Amino acid sequence: MLTSINPTMKAFAVLIPALLLAFTFDPLTPFIYLVFTVAVTFFTGEVAFKRWILIVSPFLLLAASFAWMTMLHPGGAFSGGDVLFSLWSFQVTTESFRAGISLGLRSLSFAALSLLFILTTDSTKFMLSLMQQCKLPPKLTFGILAGYRFLPTFRYELQVLRQAHRIRGVGRARGVKERMHQFRRYAIPLLANAIRKAERVALAMESKGFTGETDRTHYHEMTIQTRDWVFVIVFVAMFFVSVFLSYQLGFLNIFGKQF
């Protein structure tokens, strides 16, 4: 289902709650939204659990580090409360602990929203949607698409260069100076090949009548349907549901002010 949502509308559905979550400083609001985002990802996005865990693992470590540093170095508004435990000269209080957990959960919520969009969105359809719905210039859109398509080619060419250097007896670089020389040996041929490919693509597009005009026709029309608006409304409404539940349970905190 998520793959059929208009990519631009999906981007707004992810971006708006992410911006609103930045204003909340309590742990319950981002936790509720994190659970909701993960549930939507797995039940409607057809995303493999192992793949999702593998990608989100670095974000778990990053969120834990954010939470820990916030507990040890809280701001003035989050330094009060009873002391939970002490570590050397640092004291972790109830308020700093809550602020740290909140920051960690917010980071995970941002990561979950980003993964929901990335893992369920086709890059080509996203750029076409930006061009048709957001009126992004075709020159910029097709330029980004062409560059994105070249990335696997550049990786293959880099592997070929490394193997060619090894065959000719060029060993691995050791030290900063040798690494700089190695970078130049790789960068110059890769840059030359990139320029050749760019010229070929430009000539091919011109030969097929590409002028960069905005009033062009499209083989694949991207439309906004009712389900796209429903998707955005549900994601935004769920944020306010999370805020309401947090307020009812006495956890809501916005910019350090308890409600």
TrEMBL record:
Q: Report the Pfam families cross-referenced here.
A: CbiQ
Q: Which InterPro entries match?
A: ABC/ECF_trnsptr_transmembrane, Cobalt_transport_CbiQ
Q: What is the top-level taxon of the source organism?
A: Bacteria
Question: What transmembrane ranges does the database entry give?
Answer: 31-49, 56-77, 97-119, 229-249
Please report the record's description of how this protein sits within the membrane: Multi-pass membrane protein
Provide the GO biological process annotations.
cobalt ion transport
Q: Where in the cell is it found?
A: Membrane
Q: Main localization of the protein?
A: membrane
One GO cellular component term of this record is: ATP-binding cassette (ABC) transporter complex
Swiss-Prot/TrEMBL keywords: Membrane, Transmembrane, Transmembrane helix
**PANTHER family given for it?**
COBALT TRANSPORT PROTEIN CBIQ
Listed name of the protein:
Thiamine permease
Species name: Mesobacillus campisalis
